[in-house]
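Retro notes (design track)

What went well: tokenization of the new backbones is finally stable.
What didn't: we kept losing track of which sequence belonged to which structure.
Fix going forward: every design gets posted as structure first, then sequence, in one message. First example under the new rule, 490 residues:
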């Protein structure tokens, strides 16, 4: 869920145009802290940072255990051995008092780095604690000869206890949660040959209707959606935006197995299907429910957790909030329909210091048509394509037009038996609303460039347009500068 221990000023600054963002990197084993400016630490400074926070991978949201990735560049004059080093990451903004306010983003383990000695530049790639679960699952179990300190599990065991035993053995702290199918019974050991520990955790999240992530406190938690009051207006979006058809509501949930006898187990909400159409979440080949009876014992709680799940798939560049996390429900302004719609933070890329270049994406879990596609408030456009067939004159004409708030463009192509001809027309129509004192300047504009200039305003605006007898320069008005003479005949 969104990080809440943050000031209101921090929240307002990340939405504004005057943000100064940075990050603080602490390598505890190296006694090294990378601060915002080189003047704060003469040996080290941060060049740039990118955080890849993905919950949805290849169209799959439920049943994931995805690690956050960090790429950063830092300048350091010392020779550093960063292999497998761990660092603490904090992101922050500069407040009005000149101080930085930082919020934690968790710990990360360096998996690769490049030391470019010519410019003292270190390029670093690191992942969060989810990578601690990358080992093979069968390798962690007790074996008297080869692994006497291995994990011991006694059966039968409930799904929640099974999950917690694994995480405790691996040294991963977890959030104590009550989730669907916590009491699902695992009666015997399951064959997990070839599975990593992360794979097994992901399969558990499938049965619980969640995905797994490492939070800012380095604890693993299991999420689907988390209610917030966050609203993303058009002013927070930077370029071409997409709002797709609504995904859901989910009204069909299935547990299926390909290679096992027994019918697929499915629950359906017929009333919802009749009203909205069918949206299905299918969990296939989950090793915990390898018989029909097991699927029947797990389907009810899973269905109740997922039934009604719905959101609007989105994709845009934005001013990253920095305190939002995967699973956060947010409201996004749908310009086309002039309303706010609910979406979910699934995949975000956060850029530091250029937070305006950050991206936010919530893909549909199944294929969906792009219904509303638009660009930011400063570049709204309508496009139109027309094909005209004139059989009598044996001509085909294509007209493509693009109308925006700044410029109008059209291209016309005409084809007949003898030739193809085309015309391109561009017009620039600047439309601005302004209160108070303002000015409009036209630089290097010839008579041929300007067809018309129109200024609209109140009944008194004409008194304040140059040239005018009440505005300098005029034959009666002079600047208040002693010792400078102006010819009053100008």
């Amino acid at each position: 869920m969104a990080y809440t221990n943050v000031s209101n000023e921090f929240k307002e600054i990340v939405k504004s145009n005057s943000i100064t963002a940075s990050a603080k990197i602490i390598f505890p084993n190296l006694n090294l802290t990378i601060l915002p400016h080189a003047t704060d630490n003469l040996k080290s400074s941060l060049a740039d940072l990118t955080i890849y926070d993905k919950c949805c991978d290849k169209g799959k949201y439920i049943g994931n255990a995805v690690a956050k990735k960090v790429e950063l560049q830092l300048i350091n004059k010392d020779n550093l051995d960063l292999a497998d080093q761990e660092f603490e990451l904090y992101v922050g903004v500069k407040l009005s008092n000149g101080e930085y306010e930082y919020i934690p983003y968790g710990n990360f383990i360096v998996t690769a780095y490049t030391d470019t000695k010519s410019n003292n530049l270190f390029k670093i790639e690191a992942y969060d604690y989810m990578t601690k679960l990358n080992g093979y699952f069968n390798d962690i179990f007790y074996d008297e000869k080869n692994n006497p300190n291995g994990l011991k599990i006694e059966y039968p065991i409930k799904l929640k206890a099974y999950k917690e035993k694994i995480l405790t053995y691996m040294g991963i702290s977890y959030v104590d949660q009550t989730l669907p199918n916590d009491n699902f019974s695992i009666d015997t050991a399951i064959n997990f040959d070839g599975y990593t520990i992360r794979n097994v955790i992901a399969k558990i999240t499938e049965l619980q209707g969640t995905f797994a992530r490492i939070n800012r406190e380095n604890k693993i938690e299991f999420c689907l959606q988390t209610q917030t009051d966050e609203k993303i207006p058009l002013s927070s979006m930077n370029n071409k935006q997409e709002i797709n058809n609504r995904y859901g509501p989910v009204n069909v949930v299935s547990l299926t197995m390909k290679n096992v006898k027994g019918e697929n187990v499915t629950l359906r909400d017929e009333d919802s299907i009749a009203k909205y159409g069918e949206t299905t979440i299918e969990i296939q080949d989950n090793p915990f429910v390898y018989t029909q009876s097991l699927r029947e014992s797990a389907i009810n709680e899973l269905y109740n957790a997922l039934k009604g799940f719905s959101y609007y798939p989105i994709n845009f560049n934005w001013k990253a909030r920095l305190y939002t996390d995967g699973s956060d429900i947010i409201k996004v302004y749908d310009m086309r329909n002039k309303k706010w719609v609910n979406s979910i933070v699934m995949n975000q890329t956060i850029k530091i210091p250029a937070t305006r270049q950050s991206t936010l994406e919530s893909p549909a879990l199944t294929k969906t048509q792009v219904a509303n596609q638009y660009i930011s408030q400063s570049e709204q456009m309508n496009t139109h394509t027309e094909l005209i067939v004139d059989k009598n004159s044996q001509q085909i004409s294509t007209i493509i037009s693009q109308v925006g708030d700044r410029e109008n463009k059209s291209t016309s192509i005409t084809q007949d038996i003898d030739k193809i001809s085309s015309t391109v027309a561009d017009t620039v129509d600047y439309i601005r609303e302004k209160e108070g004192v303002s000015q409009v300047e036209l630089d290097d504009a010839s008579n041929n460039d300007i067809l018309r200039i129109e200024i609209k305003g109140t009944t008194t605006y004409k008194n304040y347009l140059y040239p005018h007898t009440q505005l300098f320069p005029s034959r009666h008005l002079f600047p208040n500068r002693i010792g400078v003479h102006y010819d009053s005949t100008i």
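Added context from the reviewer: Residues 367-388, 403-408, 427-437, 480-490 have pLDDT under 50 and may be disordered.
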